[in-house]
Amino acid sequence: MEQVIYVENLRRDFIKTKGLIRRKRTVTAAVDGISFDVKRGEIFGILGENGAGKTTTIKMLITLLAPTSGVCKVLGYNTYGEEKKIRNRINFIFGGEMGVYRRLSGRDNLQYFANLYHIPMAEAKRKVNEVLEIVGLTDKADALAETYSKGMIQRLQISRGLMNDAEIFFMDEPTIGLDPLGARTLRNLIRTLKEHGKI
């Protein structure tokens, strides 16, 4: 199977400086020498306690943070220095309720993101209907997102992530704030998306 993510001895340090006269520098290793690889079609998860560096690792993979050292490649390209070759081929969703415009309907949220992805209008309408169907929100498509449950908002976030047909779909704590049933439903949805070649 084709390797789509390759990480070797990846490290990310954060430097904090205190004091105006006697400047004291402290270095915190948020990610300290991790290595892994992911094959195409694989569902891969990073587990760890709060502060273990999971989100920092994802931010390096999605080209938002530069590594301090090590190798970090997505789709064969370095995530720092070759990020323009990666960004239109991936997508990312946050855990929680960030990234959704609550005063817009589910459909309007997706239309908005279709515009950001420069999807032509006719194709965008078809795509919006398709992803709403996939995530099970067709019957609530025209309701305002502020009326959605947390689980529905997560499904809307996933549908947003599907709009650009990304080759790799990153999720940061997608089940945060969901009850056990909602978390199970979301995990089942992720498996369904994999079976349909969506992630």
Helix content: 25-40%
Q: What is the strand content?
A: 25-35%
In the CATH hierarchy, what is the architecture of the largest domain at level 2?
A: 3-Layer(aba) Sandwich
Largest sheet: 4 strands, antiparallel
Task: Kindly report the average pLDDT value.
Answer: 88
Helix tally equals 5
Uncertain stretches of 5 or more adjacent residues: none
Output the strand order for the largest sheet. 2-1-3-4
* CATH H-tier superfamily of the largest domain: P-loop containing nucleotide triphosphate hydrolases
Name the structural class: alpha+beta
Order of helices and strands: EEHEEEHHHEH
Q: What name does the CATH topology of the largest domain carry?
A: Rossmann fold
Shape: globular
Overall number of structural domains: 2
Termini Cα gap: 15 Å
Short characterization:
This protein has 199 residues and is an alpha+beta fold. It contains five helices and six strands.
Describe the structure.
The protein has 199 residues and is an alpha+beta fold. It has 2 domains: 1-85, P-loop containing nucleotide triphosphate hydrolases (Rossmann fold, 3-Layer(aba) Sandwich), CATH 3.40.50; 93-199, Rossmann fold (3-Layer(aba) Sandwich), CATH 3.40.50. It is 32% helix and 25% strand. The chain has helices at residues 54-61, 106-116, 121-135, 150-162, 180-195; strands spanning 3-18, 24-39, 69-74, 77-78, 90-94, 168-172. A 4-stranded antiparallel beta sheet has the order 2-1-3-4. α4 (150-162) packs parallel to α5 (180-195).
